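Hi P.,

Sorry for the delay on this. The queue was packed all week, but I finally got your sequence through. Input first:
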Amino acid sequence: MASDPAPALSASGLASERATSAPVAILLCTYNGARFLPQQLKSYEAQDFADWRLFVSDDGSRDATPSLLEEFQKQHGAERVQIRRGPCRGFVANFLSLICDPSIASSYYALSDQDDVWAADKLSRALASLSAAPADVPTVYCSRTRLIDENGADLRLSFLYKKPPHFRNALTQSLASGNTMVLDEQARRLLMRAGADVDVPSHDWWIYLATTAAGGRMLYDGAATVGYRMHPRNVIGSNRSAGAQMRRAGMLWQGRYKNWTELHVSALARLEDVMTDENRKTFEQFRRSRKRSSLPRAYGLIRAGVYRQTLLGNIGLLAAALAGKV
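Then the structure:
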């Protein structure tokens, strides 16, 4: 599934030819991840597409993470495995620091958490999908995940989204976990344009918003390509369990969702000049509707065409709009 395409963004310095010979850049962010990191590193080595380089940004780990990374670097060489100190301002800033670093040059950029396990065909599936997409349109591959416990045992699959990815959906919810995402160069340059200092609640939701705002494509794979580990230190976690759904509902009514939307509206203002005409109109209608009173606000959001992926989600969105929580 893909959002509506947009013309090339060459006027903004975003267009680039897609090189087929450059390797994939794996962008890994770490922080005190020694317990599970070795399994993730082994899953890189087990990829059936082996032409990758690893760029690690460590946010000041105080456990054995640095020594594990250094050992992995010794095994594969400093050219193939590069380690740096992160900005130490949280996981979002850490990922954006890698994504927006112009010294990292590749054709594709695969985001990775420290505690997951990649399926052996994770990269090859992503590249097969991305290589078939138009080279002049920002494109991001993403997929479902296979949820695993602390010992690596299977729990369940993440939710399967069936409605098409689109900017009107991105305004209300995130589509896929960042640990499944692989960006092409066009999408990466779009994020660089917005800047590493953009203030957003999560990098994966921001990638969905930014890419679709500019008319880019989100290629959503219904197959699971990542073993997404569920453990107490998970920053985000699954949204499929009843408990997780209740926690998210609580955050909505406490006003956190509204705060996130405020951050997104401010961040998207940086990309208004590269939005498609349709998305610019949707964005403006969404922005205006949020400032209205109860019924006009809900009506305005309906007219803007924003939607969530499930019926219950859309009912919740309407209720939140009526209550001024969007």
